[in-house]
Amino acid sequence: MQRISLSLLRLVDGWAGGEKELDQGDHQVDWLRVIPFILVHLACLAVFWVGFSPAALIACVAMYLVRMFAITGFYHRYFSHRSFRTSRATQFVFAVLANATAQRGPLWWAAHHRHHHRHSDRSADIHSPMQSGAWHSHIGWILCRANFGTRKRLVRDLMRYPELIFLDRFDYLAPLAAAAALFGLGSLLANVAPELGTDGPQMLVWGFFISTIAVFHATCGINSVAHIWGSRRYETSDDSRNNWLLAILTLGEGWHNNHHRFPGRARHGEAWWEIDVTYLILRQMARVGLIWDLRAPARAEAAIPARHPSSG
């Protein structure tokens, strides 16, 4: 009963119960918290009822690309690896966008990823296909009770921002806001531009549910697929691989072996054909001063100089 009560409380406050369960019973699934996860997947089936429109497809693709970049550029390269610096405002905006993917809060995401790099493909790695199989590395680990808490000791540098703590504790607010905004947009378009053939439910299903699930599985594919299939430029101590298909789907994250060799670099693609869309966007953000001190491969180019005296 106490465990059920804690699971229910964590639906409201992600920090309830602290970190006491971390690294304990790694494969014990928190079945109560799995229910929302399953429902989001099942909601995609509503596409057979809401139908299709070009407007809904555009919203789906746009939400995929914007939020995927927020995950790759900020949850990963910024919050997890500090590959560049930025202002507190920009940091918060992209934390909200990444949080809207329903991949938990920025501190939780960064802490677990830093833990992964410390123990990559060794026994302590919580999502290694070499240790626990492809299914667990792709999706099973997220459902486990032991991995629910935020490893606060690994993100002390981020703990000084109360707004990030708020997002981490109440990580359901941004996804709910995104879903509500898309429903509202669809309802508005149904009234002001009925020729577009969309409405609230259709925009919600395509713009939020389908794109969210697509972002989720593409991201998780880095944990599973990119440690099983692909090429290896560097002989790292783990089984990381470069996978061109994942690189396309994740805007550059698929050059995973390169990343594991130089985890602090903002640029993951090295060869001219290893297109890293996230890095290309980050470079443009640096040019207009939204970010600075962008860490790139030394042999390819120097770091873009700072335009600001301090960062968030």
Properties at a glance:
single chain; 312 residues; mainly alpha; two-stranded antiparallel sheet; 14 helices; 52% helix; disordered C terminus
Report the radius of gyration as a whole number of Å.
20 Å
Q: Give the helices and strands as they follow along the chain.
A: HHHHEHHHHHHHHHHE
Shape: globular
Low-confidence segments, given as residue ranges, are 300-312
β-sheet strand percentage: under 5%
Q: Level of helix content?
A: 40-55%
Distance between the termini: 42 Å
Average per-residue pLDDT, rounded, comes to: 90
Largest sheet: 2 strands, antiparallel
Instruction: Please state the structural category.
Output: mainly alpha
Number of helices: 14
The total strand number stands at 2
Count of the domains: 1
- Strand line-up in the sheet with most strands: 1-2
What would your notes on this structure say?
- By secondary structure, this protein is mainly alpha-helical.
- The protein has one domain.
- A two-stranded antiparallel ribbon has the order 1-2.
- The chain is globular.
- The protein starts with a helix and ends in a 20-residue tail after the last strand.
- The C terminus is likely disordered.
Architecture blueprint of SSEs:
Elements: H1 2-10, H2 31-43, H3 47-50, H4 54-80, E1 85-86, H5 88-99, H6 106-118, H7 129-132, H8 134-138, H9 162-169, H10 173-192, H11 200-224, H12 244-249, H13 256-261, H14 277-287, E2 291-292
Antiparallel strand pairs: 1-2
Helix pairs in contact: 4-5, 4-6, 4-11, 10-11
Overview in brief:
The chain has 312 residues and is an all-alpha fold.
